[in-house]
């Protein structure tokens, strides 16, 4: 298939979509415009969550004795909802092979997606969490008409390349030497996108604590050297004469829905401003915060139990200084358990925190 000269990425997408739609070449979805055209053997299948709204991966787990028809359903969006479990950032999963959709691809391994950037971002996030490396092969499956010459000038640093192209008639080893993304390019991500993807917020917070530049595309950049040194209180090392470690969130009271979350194990030199900033960055800012710094903990008050549960999920693995904080839903105390029989605000709970999605 020949391309017009002087084209843009969107020109290429439209030409491929028009050609495939006019010749009824795509299996599904239909119509094919603005979609990735679609043309398995006892392998563990991880699929990205749609638009990364609830996490990065879902692990497909077919029911015992699944037939071929059931396995086909497992690969659909409905199957993902029915037969999968979320895979968190701390799962230490290793991906052996990446299969990515494409609208157009060249024999050199250069790829064009549908223009939303999710495949490039998913790969960059996998790099950041250690799931893939430079030797992990990337494969795309397309129709022959989607294999075209793509001008190198259209490629950007964050674009994912492919190592193998599978078509109905050929297997193409691209031998692509262009480097793949080595992580997330935060300068390419807007605050609007960041606000829609909780798992991306978690990764950004981790990389910020590791000292990386995580300035977003539409954020003002700090002056050079303004953040080159961490405050002394963030890197302090506890000595043998230090006071006892902060309190975790102990169990108290009776079960019952509550909109309060306990954050425990706060460093003794932690500041409430640090915690508030981390909560904002992770999309878990509460309506009200009760600071109990001397006791090494804080209570986060949310409007609804569901919001509190979501906060527990988003705050997993949060570090302040050198300490990883504990996070748990609080419980309400019975009036009979309290001096004078008065009901107080929810108290901390030592139940295991919910795993991140």
UniProtKB/TrEMBL annotation:
<dbReference type="InterPro" id="IPR035979">
    <property type="entry name" value="RBD_domain_sf"/>
</dbReference>
<dbReference type="InterPro" id="IPR037171">
    <property type="entry name" value="NagB/RpiA_transferase-like"/>
</dbReference>
<dbReference type="Pfam" id="PF01812">
    <property type="entry name" value="5-FTHF_cyc-lig"/>
</dbReference>
<dbReference type="InterPro" id="IPR002698">
    <property type="entry name" value="FTHF_cligase"/>
</dbReference>
<dbReference type="InterPro" id="IPR012677">
    <property type="entry name" value="Nucleotide-bd_a/b_plait_sf"/>
</dbReference>
<feature type="region of interest" description="Disordered">
    <location>
        <begin position="333"/>
        <end position="357"/>
    </location>
</feature>
<dbReference type="GO" id="GO:0005737">
    <property type="term" value="C:cytoplasm"/>
</dbReference>
<dbReference type="InterPro" id="IPR000504">
    <property type="entry name" value="RRM_dom"/>
</dbReference>
<dbReference type="GO" id="GO:0003723">
    <property type="term" value="F:RNA binding"/>
</dbReference>
<dbReference type="InterPro" id="IPR024185">
    <property type="entry name" value="FTHF_cligase-like_sf"/>
</dbReference>
<feature type="domain" description="RRM">
    <location>
        <begin position="259"/>
        <end position="332"/>
    </location>
</feature>
<keyword id="KW-0694">RNA-binding</keyword>
<protein>
    <recommendedName>
        <fullName>Methenyltetrahydrofolate synthase domain-containing protein</fullName>
    </recommendedName>
</protein>
<feature type="region of interest" description="Disordered">
    <location>
        <begin position="224"/>
        <end position="258"/>
    </location>
</feature>
């Amino acid at each position: 298939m020949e391309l017009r000269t002087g084209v843009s990425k969107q020109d290429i997408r439209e030409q491929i979509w028009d050609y495939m739609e006019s010749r009824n070449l795509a299996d599904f979805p239909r119509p094919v415009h603005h979609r990735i055209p679609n043309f398995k053997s006892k392998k563990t299948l991880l699929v990205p969550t749609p638009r990364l709204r609830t996490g990065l991966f879902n692990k497909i787990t077919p029911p015992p004795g699944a037939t071929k028809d059931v396995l086909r359903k497992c690969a659909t969006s409905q199957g993902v909802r029915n037969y999968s479990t979320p895979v968190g950032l701390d799962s230490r999963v290793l991906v052996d092979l990446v299969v990515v959709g494409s609208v157009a691809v060249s024999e050199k391994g250069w790829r064009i997606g549908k223009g939303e950037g999710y495949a490039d971002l998913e790969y960059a996030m996998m790099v950041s969490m250690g799931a893939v490396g430079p030797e992990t092969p990337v494969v795309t499956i397309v129709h022959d008409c989607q294999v075209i010459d793509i001008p190198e000038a259209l490629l950007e640093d964050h674009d994912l390349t492919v190592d193998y192209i599978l078509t109905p008639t050929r297997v193409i080893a691209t031998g692509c030497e262009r480097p793949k993304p080595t992580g997330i390019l935060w300068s390419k991500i807007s605050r609007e996108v960041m606000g829609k993807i909780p798992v991306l917020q978690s990764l950004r917070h981790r990389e910020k604590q590791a000292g990386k530049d995580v300035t977003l595309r539409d954020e003002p950049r700090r002056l050079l050297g303004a953040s080159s040194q961490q405050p002394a209180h963030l890197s302090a090392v506890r000595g043998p004469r230090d006071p006892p470690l902060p309190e975790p969130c102990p169990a108290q009271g009776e079960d019952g829905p509550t909109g309060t979350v306990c954050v425990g194990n706060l460093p003794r030199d932690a500041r409430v401003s640090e915690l508030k900033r981390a909560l904002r960055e992770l999309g878990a800012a509460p309506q009200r915060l009760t600071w109990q710094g001397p006791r090494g903990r804080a209570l986060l008050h949310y409007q609804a139990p569901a919001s509190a549960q979501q906060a527990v999920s988003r705050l997993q693995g949060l570090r302040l200084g050198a300490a990883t904080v504990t996070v748990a839903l609080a419980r309400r105390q019975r009036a009979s358990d309290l001096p004078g029989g008065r009901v107080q605000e929810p108290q901390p709970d030592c139940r295991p925190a919910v795993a991140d999605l």
